[in-house]
Amino acid sequence: MSSQILGAVMLIYLLAAILFLMAELWSSPRLPAAGRIMLWLGLGIHSAALLGRWVESYQLALAQSVPAALAEKLRLIIVYAPLSNFYESLIFFAWCLPALGLMAFRRYFKGYLVALVALLSTLLLAYASLGGVDSSIKPLMPALKSNWLLIHVVTAFLGYAAFALAFGTALLYLLQERRPRPSLPPLPLLDGLIYRTTVLGFLLLTLGIFTGAVWAETAWGRYWSWDPKETWSLITWFIYAALLHARHLKGWHGRRIAWLAVLGFMAVLFTYFGVSFLLSGLHSYLT
Amino acid sequence: MPATRIQSKPKSWLWGTLTSIRLTVFLLLILAAVAVIGTVVPQNQPPDQYFSRFGEVWGELLWRGGFTSVYFSPWFLGPISLLAMNILACVVHGLPQAVRRASQPLTGETALTLPERGQITWPAGVDPHALIGATLSRELGHYRLETLPDKEIYLRERGRCRPVGPYLIHIALLLILAGSLIGKFWGVDGQLPLDQGEVAGAFQVGSRVEKPLNFQVRLDHFQVSFYEPGGTPKEFRSDLTFIKDGREVWRGTCRVNEPVSFGGLTFYQSSYGTQATGPIRLKVQLGDLSQSMEAPFRRPLELPGGQGQVIPMRVDGDFRGYGPAVLLAFSPGSGHPQAFWVLQNHPELSEQPGPYRFTAESIPFGYYSVFQVKHDPGLWWVYGGFLLFLPGLYLAFFRPVERWALVLAKTPKGRWQGRLLGASPRQREEFADRQERLLMELKRGTAA
CA nearest B374 in A: which residue? Predict the structure, then answer.
């Protein structure tokens, strides 16, 4: 049932992407409004599907053990947030992209950027439903039963989403620089937007790493074990740290920063997909 | 004085290099490259793994070059120490100035150097003081007023502490690095496997070293529960009793994500293992002969017919989801010993070299608990670094920086005239919005 709803959400995002693309190509004032409504609609249904899965997981957990006190109940609710396997992380990543764009970067979230982001969400959802990813709700292994699960995953994926926005903006920048189009935002605006999204992503990635470290400390007695996921998140962090330093101290702007944002997002993708599939480690339960 | 110049030159060169951003970026790139190697080359494996995987030449190179434990090799420790020095040098170099800037409030004198953003002249006879006070309070918040003989200056600034932000971040990083060093040198980290009912007075540090405890710990009860038979483990918990000078001092339950601490050490429920609780009953076939035998755990058993011996090496309560299994090491009279798994419920899945054919009739097994035992005096340094990092990030990247001044003076004709000055290095759009609103509100008084 929830997978069919997500299939519908995927189509809605695709439609929104097409509407925004058409709006840019024919410079129509009405199409973006329609696209925006579509995107909000998709996000609303998407949120409801996430909540539905949360309720379902919680009810399955209740079948295992019934909590007595309210605190225990709350803990169970937090622990059973639908963020504990690869499928759920894909769905959540796909949610973070439009959510962050619509809520945190409302003013700049228009045109090709929205089309790109909506397309990315569509791809993620398509992969989740068609790529042979196991979508069943699995009982949690002991290490995942922690209050840190929710905050760790939420900060990490919001961070990924912010970097995805930076990546999309960087692509637009490079495109605009090579072949200027009046329909695209001006270069200084794109440059500023790459910076803002990167800074937000950097904050969230840092929080994701810190919460992961504190969690690992309580679960295994080690805040850092050089697990491939940890290491790659650190490499990603280094790249964005280098970007921020280059911009603040060396005055780098424009094309070079855009390429760094592209490189950073490649590292993000490797941290998310590459590490899960190619290297094994503490996060291997994802697959 | 040429002598001093010659002396000071290398020093300033060194200092210049240490505080340079180029060094930082260079080190970050090297660290990233080394870390990539660390994720591609499996770490801390026995040497034969590398030879079989990467071949003679590369295996030798990786092993001898320290790439098999790269995060503890000079390849990583060198650049990270340099990075720490680089960060420290930058903090020493820039922090005093940042603190000075943060502690100097905006004065009327400096405010007059800010760029002008607009002018308002009120009609004769209109006193704008009340309007200005109300508008500035509403739009900008708490302001200060400086009165000079010929003019009044309304001052408002936000984000004066912003220059300190980057230094907080870098001090936080130094705290984290220092914490990890402290943990490395003054902390202990080991493992303790415990059987149900067993009492331990020491734990293992590294593969061979035993470290004594100044108390004893007893595992009263260990329980592994599964969501369904053969499925995901649901919980493992250990009930521990701590004994000091022969007296039971404290009891605690240790679960995954819920460590217990005693005597300065913390016990983490890190994993569990399976072991045989009695001899394993095997059916041994050789041609038409078939015999049931009891094989004691980890002891050699001479086989009938005298063609070799067998040792049960390991047991697994649920081998790859197929139920109980035993790992047998079979040594023929001559030639290399061979190891293979025999599954109790799926004898057909076992590949055996012959000439004997083994089937498991019963595998008595139980679980034992494995703890990570740790004392890390650097942990709070690391956590302190985490906590300091966040206000640092806020100040450096998110704190709005704005300086405003409204200079109010009388024109020669006796009218009140205000000049709005201000600057914001970062948030240009928000600043422009606010400027527009401020001017609009202030001009409202001129229409009356």
Answer: A221
The CA distance from B375 to B188, in Å, is 5
> Torsion over CA of A207, A213, A218 and A221, rounded to 10 degrees?
-170
Helices of type H across B120-245: 129-140, 165-186
Which residues of B fall within a CB distance of 8 Å from A250?
21
Q: If pLDDT is split at 50, 70 and 90, which confidence band does B287 have?
A: confident
Q: How far does Cα B219 stand from its chain's mean position? A: 31
- What structural domains does chain B harbor? 2-101 (no CATH), 106-159+402-447 (3.30.310), 186-274+369-388 (no CATH), 280-364 (no CATH)
Residue B10 pLDDT: 62
Pairing of the two strands B289-295 and B280-286: antiparallel
DSSP state of A30: H
ipTM here: 0.90
The mean pLDDT value for A84-102 works out to 91
Q: How far is CA B242 from the centre of its chain?
A: 30
How far from chain centre, in Å, is Cα B341?
38
Question: Any CB–CB contact under 8 A between B393 and chain A?
Answer: yes
CB-CB under 8 Å, A228 with B32: no
Backbone angles phi, psi at A6, to 5 degrees: -65, -30
What is the average pLDDT score of chain B? 85
CA distance A48 to A2: 10
Residue B206 burial by Cβ neighbours in a 10 Å radius (0-12, 13-18, 19+): exposed
Residue A237 distance to chain B (closest CA, Å): 10
